[in-house]
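Priority: medium. Attachment 1 of 2:
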């Protein structure tokens, strides 16, 4: 029993000794150091960068079969040569040089993990022990620097309004805000098609700006002959280039300026007349010109009777209508007269303002003179017609009896007329009133009776027809026709009754009329 106990204790002691020896050997397993230089890189799309992976053996043991590999979650390509080392001596180190580049144009962000595999064989051990160490590299995209961080641009000018006769100047101040040179490559001014930009001190080669340097680029700004009045925006597009880490980068900056484009004198004219727009100026001028001409020979009270009072609704109705006609006809007229159609609905200039102003006044004056002439012509025609009508109605000294009968008919008078006693040459005479009397008459046509003398061969029928017209309702015109027919047939003769000095129609003064006897037969038969 005692022998067995002693043997057990001996075996146990030997086992403990071996265990202590083995544990001490494994406790000295070497750990290597892995360093990545740099630890962070920024990759641009065209860049390929180098990194170094350094492995260090801080122990007194040799390391065998040292191998480098990697894995990554970033979209990069990694390449290198001679990635395996047979022996790394005690306290030695080794460096691998690797090349990294972006695998695509897409932004990259992630980590490249480097793995170093090696083996170590403990002294007196037959088998090698495999070991692994790790290092890492952070990868980011090297995005182009924002142009606003590199440079700035602003407009310096007092230009607020612009017209053809008064151009302006704009200074574009470009400042390099960075610590690297910047190339001011191109400036593209933009604006309405009726504005021209002329660079003063900027050529096709551009300008080079040193770190924190500024320059001013001047432009002459001019309005063309035809513009669209109103507020318009001027825009300057500035293209810049600079180098960063050997890579050329570019960007654009924009500067704007609002200007009021107009026509020389237009706003002053519209403001003076209180006109809301140039488009209604033609009609306004036409009406004012007509009013001026119309009132030349009239008193102040009469001038106030002009139909179209300025600024009243009816005034604007006519003015806008006339302006619309002018706007429609102006392109046609200018196209025919000058060969170039000018349409101020699309755009206009000082030339159009002058032409519209003068043409509106001339057209209005011509229309007024034409209307006045037409009125005079109409009045002359009216007077002429009245004269003809008067001659056909009013008696005359050389009228024969038949002519006078027809004039009586035109006055709606028959063959029964008022008879008067009048004084001629100091003697009293009977005469017939040959016209209708008005209320205020000063003179009066009177005449002797008409005598119808029947000749041999006069037919009974003709006599009866004449007799029928000598009644109270007889027609002077019908009677004149019957007497003319009988005269031509030689059946009768018609004459004035000879009454001393009253032997034909006579224009008597009112003072010579002594008395009236109404309704007496004007025609006598013999």
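Attachment 2 of 2:
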């Amino acid at each position: 029993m005692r022998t067995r106990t002693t043997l057990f204790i001996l075996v146990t002691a030997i086992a403990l000794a071996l265990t202590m020896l083995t544990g001490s050997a494994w406790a000295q397993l070497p750990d290597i150091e892995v360093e990545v230089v740099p630890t962070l890189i920024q990759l641009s799309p065209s860049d390929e960068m180098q990194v170094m992976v350094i492995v260090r053996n801080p122990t007194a043991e040799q390391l065998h079969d040292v191998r480098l590999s990697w894995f990554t979650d970033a979209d990069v390509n990694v390449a290198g040569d001679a990635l395996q080392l047979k022996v790394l001596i005690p306290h030695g180190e080794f460096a691998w040089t690797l090349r990294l580049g972006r695998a695509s144009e897409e932004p990259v962000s992630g980590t490249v993990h480097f793995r170093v595999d090696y083996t170590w064989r403990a002294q007196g051990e037959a088998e090698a022990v495999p070991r692994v160490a790790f290092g890492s590299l952070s990868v980011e995209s090297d995005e182009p620097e924002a142009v606003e961080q590199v440079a700035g641009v602003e407009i310096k000018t007092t230009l607020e309004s612009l017209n053809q006769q008064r151009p302006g100047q704009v200074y574009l101040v470009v400042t390099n805000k960075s610590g690297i040179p910047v190339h001011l490559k191109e400036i593209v001014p933009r604006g309405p098609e009726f504005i021209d930009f002329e660079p003063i001190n900027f050529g096709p080669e551009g300008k080079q700006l040193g770190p924190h340097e500024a320059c001013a680029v001047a432009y002459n700004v001019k309005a063309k002959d035809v513009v669209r009045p109103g507020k318009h925006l001027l825009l300057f597009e500035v293209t810049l280039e600079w180098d960063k880490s050997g890579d050329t980068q570019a960007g654009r900056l924009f500067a704007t300026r609002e200007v009021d484009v107009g026509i020389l004198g237009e706003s002053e004219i519209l403001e003076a007349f209180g006109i809301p727009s140039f488009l209604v100026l033609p009609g306004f001028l036409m009406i004012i010109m007509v009013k001026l001409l119309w009132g030349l020979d009239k008193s102040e009270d009469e001038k106030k009777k002009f139909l179209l009072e300025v600024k009243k609704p009816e005034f604007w109705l006519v003015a806008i209508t006339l302006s619309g006609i002018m706007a429609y006809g102006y392109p046609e007229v200018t196209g025919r007269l000058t060969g170039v159609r000018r349409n101020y609905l699309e755009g206009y200039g000082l030339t159009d303002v002058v032409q519209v102003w003068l043409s509106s006044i001339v057209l209005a004056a011509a229309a007024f003179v034409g209307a006045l002439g037409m009125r005079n012509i109409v009045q002359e025609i009216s007077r002429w017609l009245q004269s003809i009508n008067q001659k056909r109605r009013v008696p005359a000294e050389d009228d024969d009896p038949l002519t006078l009968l027809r004039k009586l008919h035109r006055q709606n008078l028959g063959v029964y007329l008022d008879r008067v006693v009048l004084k001629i040459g100091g003697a009293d005479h009977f005469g017939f009133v040959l016209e209708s009397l008005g209320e205020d008459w000063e003179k009066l046509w009177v005449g002797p009776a008409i005598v119808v003398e029947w000749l041999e061969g006069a037919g009974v029928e003709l006599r009866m027809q004449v007799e029928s017209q000598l009644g109270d309702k007889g027609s002077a015109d019908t009677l004149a026709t019957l007497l003319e027919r009988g005269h031509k047939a030689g059946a009768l003769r018609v004459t004035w009754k000879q009454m001393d000095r009253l032997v034909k129609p006579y224009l008597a003064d009112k003072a010579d009329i002594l008395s009236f006897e109404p309704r007496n037969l004007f025609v006598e038969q013999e």
